[in-house]
Design goal:
Blueprint: H1 2-19, E1 30-35, E2 43-49, E3 53-54, E4 71-72, E5 78-83, E6 88-96, E7 100-105, E8 111-114, E9 124-127, E10 133-141, E11 147-157
Parallel strand pairs: 1-5
Antiparallel strand pairs: 2-11, 3-4, 5-10, 6-9, 6-11, 7-8, 7-10
Protein backbone atom coordinates (compact mmCIF):
# COMPACT_ATOMS: atom_id res chain seq x y z
CA UNK A 1 0.00 0.00 0.00
CA UNK A 2 2.86 2.37 0.84
CA UNK A 3 4.39 1.77 -2.61
CA UNK A 4 1.07 2.57 -4.29
CA UNK A 5 0.82 5.94 -2.51
CA UNK A 6 4.46 6.66 -3.41
CA UNK A 7 3.80 5.93 -7.08
CA UNK A 8 0.69 8.13 -7.08
CA UNK A 9 2.57 10.95 -5.36
CA UNK A 10 5.46 10.67 -7.85
CA UNK A 11 3.00 10.85 -10.75
CA UNK A 12 1.55 14.11 -9.42
CA UNK A 13 4.98 15.58 -8.76
CA UNK A 14 6.27 14.80 -12.25
CA UNK A 15 3.06 15.85 -14.02
CA UNK A 16 3.09 19.10 -12.01
CA UNK A 17 6.68 19.75 -13.08
CA UNK A 18 5.74 19.34 -16.73
CA UNK A 19 2.88 21.80 -16.29
CA UNK A 20 5.25 24.33 -14.71
CA UNK A 21 7.13 24.89 -17.96
CA UNK A 22 6.54 27.11 -20.97
CA UNK A 23 3.51 25.58 -22.68
CA UNK A 24 1.96 26.87 -25.91
CA UNK A 25 -1.31 25.11 -25.05
CA UNK A 26 -1.93 27.65 -22.27
CA UNK A 27 -3.77 30.87 -23.06
CA UNK A 28 -1.39 33.76 -23.80
CA UNK A 29 -1.47 36.96 -21.79
CA UNK A 30 -2.11 38.86 -25.07
CA UNK A 31 -2.93 37.81 -28.64
CA UNK A 32 -2.52 39.74 -31.88
CA UNK A 33 -2.86 39.31 -35.64
CA UNK A 34 -0.38 40.88 -38.04
CA UNK A 35 0.83 40.60 -41.60
CA UNK A 36 4.42 40.76 -42.71
CA UNK A 37 3.65 44.11 -44.33
CA UNK A 38 2.21 45.53 -41.08
CA UNK A 39 5.37 44.54 -39.22
CA UNK A 40 7.58 46.30 -41.77
CA UNK A 41 7.39 49.21 -39.33
CA UNK A 42 8.64 48.12 -35.92
CA UNK A 43 5.89 47.32 -33.40
CA UNK A 44 6.46 47.32 -29.66
CA UNK A 45 4.55 45.48 -26.92
CA UNK A 46 5.09 46.22 -23.23
CA UNK A 47 5.61 43.25 -20.91
CA UNK A 48 6.97 42.35 -17.49
CA UNK A 49 9.88 39.99 -18.17
CA UNK A 50 10.63 37.04 -15.93
CA UNK A 51 9.14 33.82 -14.65
CA UNK A 52 9.51 30.84 -12.34
CA UNK A 53 10.40 28.09 -14.82
CA UNK A 54 14.07 27.39 -15.49
CA UNK A 55 14.21 26.60 -19.21
CA UNK A 56 16.64 23.69 -19.03
CA UNK A 57 14.46 21.87 -16.46
CA UNK A 58 11.65 21.67 -19.02
CA UNK A 59 11.79 18.48 -21.11
CA UNK A 60 9.08 19.77 -23.47
CA UNK A 61 11.24 22.73 -24.55
CA UNK A 62 14.44 21.99 -26.45
CA UNK A 63 15.62 24.99 -28.46
CA UNK A 64 18.30 24.28 -31.00
CA UNK A 65 19.77 27.73 -30.49
CA UNK A 66 21.46 29.50 -27.56
CA UNK A 67 22.02 27.54 -24.34
CA UNK A 68 22.17 30.25 -21.66
CA UNK A 69 20.08 30.40 -18.50
CA UNK A 70 16.56 31.72 -18.50
CA UNK A 71 13.42 31.75 -16.39
CA UNK A 72 10.04 32.01 -18.11
CA UNK A 73 6.33 31.99 -17.26
CA UNK A 74 4.26 28.92 -18.12
CA UNK A 75 1.79 30.67 -20.45
CA UNK A 76 3.06 32.65 -23.43
CA UNK A 77 3.31 36.38 -22.92
CA UNK A 78 2.16 36.86 -26.51
CA UNK A 79 0.62 34.85 -29.30
CA UNK A 80 0.82 36.27 -32.82
CA UNK A 81 -1.22 34.95 -35.72
CA UNK A 82 1.02 35.92 -38.65
CA UNK A 83 0.18 35.98 -42.35
CA UNK A 84 1.88 37.19 -45.53
CA UNK A 85 5.32 36.30 -44.16
CA UNK A 86 6.77 34.67 -47.31
CA UNK A 87 8.87 37.61 -48.60
CA UNK A 88 10.21 38.60 -45.15
CA UNK A 89 12.57 37.77 -42.33
CA UNK A 90 11.20 38.45 -38.86
CA UNK A 91 13.22 40.11 -36.12
CA UNK A 92 11.96 39.46 -32.59
CA UNK A 93 13.84 41.37 -29.90
CA UNK A 94 13.54 42.71 -26.37
CA UNK A 95 14.63 45.96 -24.77
CA UNK A 96 14.59 45.70 -20.99
CA UNK A 97 15.71 47.11 -17.67
CA UNK A 98 17.45 43.82 -16.77
CA UNK A 99 19.13 40.77 -18.32
CA UNK A 100 16.18 39.54 -20.39
CA UNK A 101 15.82 36.24 -22.27
CA UNK A 102 13.55 35.32 -25.18
CA UNK A 103 11.78 32.06 -26.02
CA UNK A 104 9.76 31.48 -29.21
CA UNK A 105 7.69 28.57 -30.48
CA UNK A 106 6.96 28.98 -34.19
CA UNK A 107 4.06 27.84 -36.35
CA UNK A 108 6.26 24.92 -37.46
CA UNK A 109 6.65 23.85 -33.77
CA UNK A 110 10.31 24.85 -33.55
CA UNK A 111 11.67 26.33 -30.31
CA UNK A 112 14.16 29.22 -30.33
CA UNK A 113 15.96 30.74 -27.34
CA UNK A 114 18.28 33.71 -26.95
CA UNK A 115 19.85 35.63 -24.11
CA UNK A 116 22.10 38.49 -25.29
CA UNK A 117 22.14 38.89 -29.10
CA UNK A 118 20.41 42.30 -29.05
CA UNK A 119 23.24 43.83 -26.99
CA UNK A 120 23.01 45.40 -23.53
CA UNK A 121 22.10 41.95 -22.07
CA UNK A 122 18.92 41.81 -24.19
CA UNK A 123 17.84 39.02 -26.57
CA UNK A 124 17.14 38.97 -30.30
CA UNK A 125 16.07 36.18 -32.62
CA UNK A 126 15.90 36.49 -36.41
CA UNK A 127 13.57 34.05 -38.11
CA UNK A 128 14.97 33.93 -41.65
CA UNK A 129 12.05 32.06 -43.20
CA UNK A 130 9.00 32.55 -40.96
CA UNK A 131 5.89 30.73 -42.05
CA UNK A 132 2.32 31.89 -41.68
CA UNK A 133 0.57 30.79 -38.52
CA UNK A 134 0.78 31.08 -34.77
CA UNK A 135 3.98 32.23 -33.09
CA UNK A 136 4.10 32.14 -29.28
CA UNK A 137 6.57 34.34 -27.39
CA UNK A 138 7.78 34.25 -23.80
CA UNK A 139 9.89 37.08 -22.35
CA UNK A 140 11.91 35.86 -19.41
CA UNK A 141 15.02 36.84 -17.53
CA UNK A 142 18.42 35.29 -17.07
CA UNK A 143 18.08 35.06 -13.29
CA UNK A 144 14.31 34.83 -12.68
CA UNK A 145 13.92 38.41 -11.47
CA UNK A 146 11.09 40.54 -12.87
CA UNK A 147 11.58 43.77 -14.81
CA UNK A 148 9.86 46.06 -17.30
CA UNK A 149 10.56 45.25 -20.93
CA UNK A 150 9.32 45.79 -24.45
CA UNK A 151 9.01 43.06 -27.07
CA UNK A 152 9.69 44.37 -30.58
CA UNK A 153 8.73 42.75 -33.88
CA UNK A 154 9.88 43.94 -37.29
CA UNK A 155 10.07 42.41 -40.75
CA UNK A 156 12.70 42.96 -43.42
CA UNK A 157 12.80 42.00 -47.10
CA UNK A 158 14.66 38.75 -47.74
Amino acid sequence: MKKLFGAIAATFVFSGAALACPNYDLSPAAAYQATGQQLYAIRGFDVVAGGDNYIWNCPNVRPGTDTGAGYFPSAPDFSFQLSGMNPYTLSVSVISECDAALLINTASANWYYDDDDNGNLDPKIILTRPINGRVDVWVGTYDGELCNAQLQLETFDR
